[in-house]
Structure formats: C-alpha cells, structure tokens
C-alpha cells in the first residue's frame, strides 16, 4: 500500500503551457527531475486564433485578401493589426473578449465564422461571438492528455499558463476562463518571470560575485517585449536556512512592450514583395484563396532561408495557377521594408532602458533573445547596429521554449524543497490601477490610469462593484478580484453576481448532451439506411418478390437521404428541403436549446422519424411479399402436417378408442379438410403469389374446427363415464 501511494505521488506533475506565438508549447515539472518538454502535435499546427477565425468554407484563405484588409483598415485603422491575427494566439484569444469592437467588425466575424451563441456582457466587453476560450480549452485538454499519456498513472495536479505581462484584467480573465473550461484553475506566469527564473537557475555562476544586468528581448508573432533585470546573490535570512546558504534575487528594473508589430509582420512584408513580383511577370494574375496561402507559405520559406545567407534565390512553383517563377530576395531589401518594425523595437528598448534608470546602454552586461521571432538575423543585426556591438547579443537559452521551461521552475520555486537554492523574483507592474469610490465608499470603480499605454482596443474602465457592508477587493496578478460584492452595470442597476464560467460550462454541457443524443439518432438512422439498402440489393427473396422499378424507387429515396447525411458529416449545412440555417445558428442560448430545430445544420428527431417512416412506407410492400415468399414453405408444411394429423385421428385413432364425434361437428371438420386438401393440391408445385396471411388464416380455421370436435368428444366421454 505504501509503495502504491509513493508511486501515485511520484507520477503527479505540474503542467505549464504557453499559448502564444504560432504554436502551443508545453512542459511538465516533477520533483527530482528537470523540467521537460511535452510533445503536442495538435498545438504545433492549430492555435486558438486559427480556430476562432476559421471560416466556414474549406476554400477560405489562411490570411485576409486585399478586400478584407481594406475593410479592416476602415474599422481598425492598422493593416498589420489585422494581418497578424490568423497565426497568433496570445493576442487574438483575449482580444476577442477584452476588446470593445465596433458593431461593424463584430458583424464581419459573425458572418465569416461558425459562431456559438454566448451570453452578452453587461459592460459591453463581451460581444455575441464564438468564445475563443472554448477552442483554447480543447487545446489545453489535448496537452493535458498528452502529458498524462507520456507515462502510466501520470496525473496533472497543477496548471500554469504563460502570458505576456501587458495583458489586462479582461484578457487575463479570458485565459483563466479557458483553463476552467478544461477543469483546471490555473496560475498565470508572465513571460519574463519565467525567463528570468530560468536564467537565474542555469547561469548562476555568472553573477556569483557581483550583480549582473541582463536585457531580455521577446519577439513573438505579433508583439515585442523588453525587460531589464538585475541578478544578485544574497544571504537567505529565512528561518531554518543554513548560514552559508544564499538565495538568488531577481529584480525587474524596467519593462516595455508594443503590440503593433512582430515576426508575423516580416512574413507579410515578404509576401507583399512576392505578390509585386508576380504582378510584374504576370499582370493578369488572379489571386484566389489558395494563392494567398501559397504566397504566405513561400514568404516563410524565404524568411527561413535568409537566416542562413544574406541573399536567396528560390524557385516557387504554382503560386498562381499554372505560373512558376524564380524569386530573389536579400536581407538588405527586407531591412528597407521593415523599417517600422525595427523602429518599434528600438523605441520599446529605450522605453524600458529609461524606466530602469540607466544612463548608457553599456551598463547592461548582455542581451538575451527569446521567442520564435528572434531566429531572424533581421532583429539581431538591428540590435548590434544600435549599440555598435558593445554589448553581446546572445541566445543562450532555448529561444522558443525558454518561457514554458522557466514557468516550470517558477512553479517549483513556489513549492517547498523543490529547488536547492531559493529564487526570489521581484517584478514590476505593467499598469497602475486607480480605484474611485463614491456613495460614501460603497461603490468602487476600477480604472487604468489615463496616461498609460493599453493594448489596442482596450478601454481604461475595468469594472464597477457595489461593496456594500462586507464587500472586499484585491488586485492579484494584474486582475481585480472582488468578494461579497454586487456587480454594478453602466445603467446603474444592481444585479446578482454572475459566475460566467459556470454558465458557460452549463451551456456547453447542455449543447454537448443534446449533440450526443442527436449523434446517437443519426447513427441509428444511418444504420437503418445501410441495412435497408443491403436487404434491397442482396436478399434473394426481395429480388424475387419485387420488380426492378419498385426496388429502384426505394433505393433512390435511400440514396437521397444518405447523400444528405454525407453532407452533414462533411460539415456542410443541411436543413429540411435543403435550405440554409444560418439564422438559427446566430440565435441565443435559448434558441439553441429549443426543441424541434436543426442542430448546427443537422436533422432534428422529428425529421429523422419522418424520413424513416418514408422509407418504411416505400419498402413495406416489398418486404411483405419477400417475407411471404421466405416463410410460405414452412407455413405450407405446417398446414399439411395438421391436415395429416386430423386424418390420422378421424380415420384411425378415434375408432380404436371407441370415440364417435357428433355428425354435425364432424361434417364441418370434413368440409374444412376438403377445402384445405384441395388448396394444398393446387399449390403443391409453386407458392408464387400466395400470401402468408392466407395460409395462416386457413391453418387457424382448420385448427379451430379440429379443436371443436375434440372438445365435443371430451364432453361425450365424460358423460359416459358419469353414467
């Protein structure tokens, strides 16, 4: 029992997940073992952003077309803001929920995407749109499942999510909601807390004797972050610590960020260059959805080749239908096109530099690059050019997985006796939150200070609550948490505090239960169609008892219904009479859960019953005749056996026993026997066209006449015995 308990405890791990960049990364932390990477194939090719913006059509582009970009330019005002969405998860996931989009933009998303009705937020921070945290929860569950399957009896007891530090209250809440949908309450670890902890653990020898100042630069798909940190060793003054034991102290001195540009902007610049070259060589080129996908894929290929050599020349095939070309591009051309991205990086660095209080860049000991975007020499050359190579620019940490590995050590440092040396991280706050109290301190409103930079589309207002007499509030990890309060809406009405996660879970459970029941009905109906078709085409009695025209009509009806089911399985929308059902999909939760409707473009229960009845009516007569043809020989033989047994009783058995039935009953039995014998003689050669019901009726009449005679004989015999 003790060994089993020890094995169970040893298999429990903490899982860390980074939903950012172009793919999901995951790591697991277990006591006594270094943090290791969890391989998750689903997260490397499918992100919450791609899921939430996935169009209905299979032919839709992976990025937006020119017309879409023009539309978003009018709505948002920045083309790069739009173009980064499809391959970015960290930004798109919370922005859908944390942004107060214009109605025009929301209507575009609802028109292009399969939306699931969601309860509208009273503060207008949530619009009626498919919740991306539902897709994020599916990815989290896949990573959790992969972690559990990596070893027998392995369980996940803790979940941590790596997020950028500049995420606001609503954006952090979106990540927590996604985790709770996957049945875990997470802890949020910002990128540079994780990276700083990893550096302090793996590079502790560098600052053993004197403090060290490191500038971390994180370049993701759509954002750039800079953090300047100080690493020192100090005496551990905690109770019970050894006299010679020292702890590592990491002080974050300055932090800055931008969400206007990232590595995905570089892909878009190269893609535009490829498109311009195609226009030069083929002026009549037509860019369809597939062309946009191929151009973007070719742009990434060019960017990766530029990491190895300053100039590349690639032969690109079939970018536009039937058109191939050789594309030549150099790093110098890319630098000219990416001036905005490089200027944004310099501005972000100097902002963090000034906040840290440094006088000269040479005061920094080294630059450490993390994030997938730092693979490109474009940003490395820009940093070296800015500081004339006076400060070394290194990638000593695992660039793409440094944050998720460091998050594992952050979790380990929060647990007792997990790390040999204690690591204490003192971070700076990305935002200052102002609390405004009115009505004698009863109503509290939370705002971001007006002079602070906020992510695109985020308003300064956070929330307003009625504290009452026992209400409390606190700011934890950049989120405003309240206890015992009533939520106050803009209209001033008081409403009961809503637990949005519970409502979301309840809504999805109801939808999943109804979907499961519907899938069961669809499977039963599909099985019924297959069995009916098999019977019509392979049963020899059906072939003999029906004509080709009758079978063709029934098979045509079955094929029609099977085609409609196939459309449903392929994801196409199908409704009664073949009509589209977009209006029902865009309803509210009540309409989704209402009865007698088509679920996600599928047949409801009443429609399935109607179609099943149609097929049964079309095949009823055919199967009836086939049944008669297959069962008639046995019924014929049964009738003949009964007739033989009656003749044996009347002619032999009863005279031997001295039994004499009444002549009236015997005559009736004789007439019925004659009719039966004549019918048997007439159909001795063939039973074609004979109904099984007719044979059963004749058998029943003969049996009843025989029973009447036997009953009369029994009564006569009893009377003679009494005398």
From TrEMBL:
The keyword Chaperone applies. It holds the Pfam family HSP70. SUPFAM superfamilies: Actin-like ATPase domain. Keywords: ATP-binding, Chaperone, Nucleotide-binding. GO terms for cellular component: endoplasmic reticulum chaperone complex. Signal peptide: none annotated. One of its GO terms (biological process) is endoplasmic reticulum unfolded protein response. One of its GO terms (molecular function) is ATP binding. The keyword ATP-binding applies. It comes from the Eukaryota. This is DnaK protein. It comes from Tritrichomonas foetus. The lineage of its organism: Eukaryota, Metamonada, Parabasalia, Tritrichomonadida, Tritrichomonadidae.
């Amino acid at each position: 029992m003790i060994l089993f308990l020890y094995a169970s405890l040893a298999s429990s791990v903490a899982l860390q997940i980074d939903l950012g960049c172009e793919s999901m990364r995951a790591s697991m932390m277990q006591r006594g073992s270094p943090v290791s990477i969890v391989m998750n194939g689903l997260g490397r090719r499918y992100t919450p952003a791609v899921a939430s913006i996935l169009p209905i059509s299979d032919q839709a582009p992976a990025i937006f077309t020119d017309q879409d970009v023009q539309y978003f330019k009018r709505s948002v005002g920045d083309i790069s803001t739009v173009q980064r969405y499809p391959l970015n998860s960290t930004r798109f996931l919370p922005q859908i929920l944390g942004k107060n989009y214009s109605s025009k933009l929301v209507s575009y998303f609802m028109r292009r995407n399969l939306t699931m009705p969601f309860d509208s937020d009273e503060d207008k921070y949530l619009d009626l749109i498919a919740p991306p945290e539902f897709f994020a929860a599916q990815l989290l569950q896949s990573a959790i499942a992969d972690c559990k399957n990596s070893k027998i009896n392995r369980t996940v007891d803790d979940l941590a999510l790596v997020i950028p530090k500049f995420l606001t209250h609503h954006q952090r809440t979106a990540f927590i909601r996604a985790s709770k949908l996957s049945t875990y309450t997470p802890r949020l670890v910002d990128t540079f807390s994780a990276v700083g902890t990893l550096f302090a653990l793996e590079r502790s020898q560098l600052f053993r004797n004197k403090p060290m100042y490191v500038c971390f630069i994180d370049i993701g798909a759509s954002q750039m972050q800079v953090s300047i940190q100080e690493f020192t060793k100090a005496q551990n003054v905690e109770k019970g610590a050894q006299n010679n034991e020292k702890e590592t102290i990491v002080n974050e001195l300055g932090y800055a960020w931008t969400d206007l540009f990232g590595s995905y902007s570089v892909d878009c610049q190269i893609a535009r260059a490829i498109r311009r070259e195609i226009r030069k060589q083929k002026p009549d080129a037509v860019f369809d959805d597939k062309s946009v996908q191929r151009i973007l894929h070719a742009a990434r290929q060019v960017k990766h080749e530029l990491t190895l050599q300053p100039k590349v020349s690639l032969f690109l095939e079939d970018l536009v239908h039937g058109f191939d070309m050789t594309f030549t591009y150099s790093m110098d051309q890319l630098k000219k096109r990416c001036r905005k991205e490089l200027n944004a990086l310099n501005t972000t660095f100097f902002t963090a530099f000034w906040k840290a209080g440094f006088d000269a860049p040479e005061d920094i000991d080294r630059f450490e690059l993390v994030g997938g975007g730092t693979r490109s020499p474009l940003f490395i050359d820009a940093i070296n050019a800015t500081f004339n190579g006076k400060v070394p620019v290194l990638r000593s940490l695992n660039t793409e997985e440094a944050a998720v590995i460091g998050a594992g050590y952050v979790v380990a440092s929060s647990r007792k006796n997990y790390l040999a040396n204690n690591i204490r991280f003192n971070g700076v706050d990305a935002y200052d939150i102002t609390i405004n109290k009115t009505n004698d301190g009863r109503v509290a409103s939370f705002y971001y200070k007006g002079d602070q930079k906020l992510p695109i589309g985020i308003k300064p207002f956070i929330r307003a609550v009625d504290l009452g007499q026992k209400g409390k509030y606190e700011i934890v990890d950049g989120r405003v948490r309240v206890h015992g309060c009533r939520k106050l809406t803009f209209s001033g009405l008081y409403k009961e505090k809503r637990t949005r996660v519970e409502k979301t879970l309840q809504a999805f459970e109801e939808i999943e239960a109804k979907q499961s029941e519907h899938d069961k009905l669809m499977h039963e109906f599909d099985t019924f169609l297959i069995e009916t078709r098999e019977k019509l085409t392979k049963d020899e009695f059906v072939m003999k008892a029906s004509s080709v025209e009758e079978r063709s009509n029934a098979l045509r009806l079955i094929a029609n219904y099977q085609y409609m089911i196939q459309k449903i399985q392929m994801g196409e929308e199908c409704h009664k009479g073949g009509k589209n059902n977009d209006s029902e999909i865009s309803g509210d939760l009540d309409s989704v859960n209402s009865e007698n409707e088509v679920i996600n473009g599928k047949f409801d229960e009443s429609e399935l019953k109607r179609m099943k009845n149609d097929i049964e009516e079309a095949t009823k007569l055919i199967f009836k005749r086939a049944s008669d043809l297959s069962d008639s020989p046995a019924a014929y033989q049964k009738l003949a056996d009964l007739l033989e047994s009656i003749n044996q009783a009347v002619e032999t058995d009863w005279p031997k026993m001295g039994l004499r039935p009444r002549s009236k009953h015997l005559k009736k039995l004789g007439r019925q026997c004659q009719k039966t014998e004549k019918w048997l003689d007439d159909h001795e050669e063939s039973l074609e066209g004979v109904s099984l019901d007719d044979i059963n009726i004749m058998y029943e009449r003969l049996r009843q006449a025989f029973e009447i005679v036997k009953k009369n004989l029994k009564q006569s015999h009893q009377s003679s015995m009494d005398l």
